[in-house]
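Trying the structure run again after the queue cleared.
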Amino acid sequence: TQSTWGRKQEEQSLKMSRRYDSRTTTFSPEGRLYQVEYAMEAINHAGAAVGILASDGVVLAAEKKITSKLLEPSKSSEKMYMFDNHIAGAVAGITSDANILINYARLAAQRYTFAYQEPMPVEQLIQNLCDLKQGYTQYGGLRPFGVSFLYAGWDKHFQFQLYHSDPSGNYGGWKATAIGANNQAAQSILKSDYKENCTLNDALHLALKVLSKTMDTTTPTAEKLEFATLTRVGDRVVYHVYTDAEVEALLKTADLTSAADDS
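Done. Tokens:
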């Protein structure tokens, strides 16, 4: 019968995927690299991160996953990292994998500055990093990096920029995007609420709205959120990670704390 034939087809397809999902270097008959897809899937279970491009800067926001109340909070930022004076990033995925890539990017940026006596163009650094990530999908005995990045940067060529890269080594420029858990829901909110040439303050409130609607918790607090901005003061690019007090003040201005108390 047709249902039996359908079941057989399903079993056949499952067997086929099992044959091709143990190596990153082998394409399946459908032209898929299963291990790279699994790496992307791992990121969908990580804490969410949001990036929004404003007219006067870039906002990065992220959800901190607190696994235990007994765990000592990280003294430095858990999800936000600085690559160079003019480039910063937010991470979703395996932090230990991210540390390897961050160190590589920092070294590449310093080498460029030493060689050319000027900051490395933002996209060039991201392309350099993505070349390394792509290599880990093409050679045997390696596994893809289980991490996605949102990059915020400024250079003299394109001013403020926001990029996203994934474990496959692909990257793209965005006006607003989200990675990590519930990223589809976050993307749809960004799509409907993002306005061209919005101010940094508008972008901060939009990032807060997106995270508050996509987080597992109904009460967003400073312990569960991280914010960072990349702006320009005079000729200097300024990267600022918000303190708990500043995040608390932001929550108050957005009336999220009072709304949470009422509920």
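Residues 218 and 263 are 9 Å apart (CA to CA). Worth checking whether this holds up in the mutant runs.
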